[in-house]
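Question:
Now give any protein.
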Amino acid sequence: MNGFFAIAVDLLVAVLLVATIISSVGLSKRMSRMRADESAMRTTIADLIVATDTAERAIAGLKSLLGESDRTLSERLRTAERYSEDLATRVHAGETVMSRIAQIVDTSRRAAEPEAAPRPPKPSNDVEGDIKVEKFKAEAANEGMLTAAAAAAQAVADRAARRLGARAA
């Protein structure tokens, strides 16, 4: 039995050696693949580092661009507000001038009305001639009012020109 037992043990050792050799070969192949993967991994990591650096520079550029655009926009908003205020002032001044012109025209109309007040018609047999005379008188009164309004507008324009001349000097 000793001989059989020795052969069985030798066989068992041989099988274990073969199993060890096979697992060693498998491990060797895996290690080779891992080394290749490690090389690919290092390349990937290097590429990621380069991409990260590029992204950081791009972000810094965007931040500076954002700051510059914010300053530009703020400046333009301030300019727009100044123009808006100036425009509102000018519109108010224009409305004031228009109301003054309206007052002048109204005053000139009132002044022209007593002069152009219709006189009682004279008794006449020529009705058509009387109508023509009344129409002529009404047209003359309207022309007088238009002339007065034009003169008033010219006076306002001259006054405004003098004011602008005084401001420019």
